[in-house]
Design goal:
Helix content: 10-25%
Number of strands: 11
Strand order of the largest sheet: 1-6-5-9-8-7-11
Radius of gyration: 16 Å
Shape: globular
Distance between the termini: 25 Å
Structural class: alpha+beta
């Protein structure tokens, strides 16, 4: 991907799950706008991230593509935006174009993909998974749970905002100083 052919998509859904005692973190629920900063999405509570990964800003946001959700649906899993715990569901972005180091520019917000999200047993709480199909869904979701992103510059996002993918920095070659 070069500067001349940067890929553009859009935000299909923004999702959060506030902390509610006794409730699991999935699925996340749609919101029309979302303020994001270095610590993640405002109003979103991620129990695992708070307890086990305090201060890990490489996992501030979770992003999933509509393409990935469509693939899982074709395989018989009725996943909807927000089900995998993502804060941003991206339309028009190919799954194969996301990888660590890839940047996303969404209005005033800049995000860098840091790493893939590994599936966890929290996915068992989805109504179509449960204990009976949990292990099968975890196996299915390996390498297909979405991408964590680090927020480089925060701001407010809106459903429908354009998303511009920016190639990793390692592809940029500086000229002589």
């Amino acid at each position: 991907m070069t500067a001349q052919n940067r890929m553009e998509g859009r935000i299909a859904q923004l999702s959060v799950k506030p902390r509610v005692p006794g409730e699991h973190g999935l699925p996340k629920h749609p919101v029309p706008t979302l303020r994001v900063g270095p610590d993640g999405a405002e109003g979103d509570y991620n129990n695992y991230r708070r307890r086990k990964l305090p201060g890990d800003r490489d996992q501030a946001l979770l992003l999933v593509t509509e393409e990935l959700l469509a693939t899982l649906r074709q395989e018989g899993w009725p996943v909807a935006p927000g089900d995998l715990g993502e804060n941003l569901t991206l339309a028009g972005i190919r799954e194969k174009d996301l990888a660590p180091g890839v940047g996303l520019r969404i209005g005033p917000v800049a995000i860098e993909i840091s790493k893939p999200c590994d599936p966890c047993t929290e996915l068992y709480t989805l109504p179509y998974v449960g204990d009976l199909r949990g292990a099968e869904f975890l196996e299915t979701a390996i390498g297909r749970r979405g991408w964590y992103g680090k927020v480089l510059s925060g701001g407010v996002l809106f459903v429908g905002d354009p998303v511009l993918l920016i190639p990793p920095v390692e592809h940029f070659q500086a000229g002589p100083a």
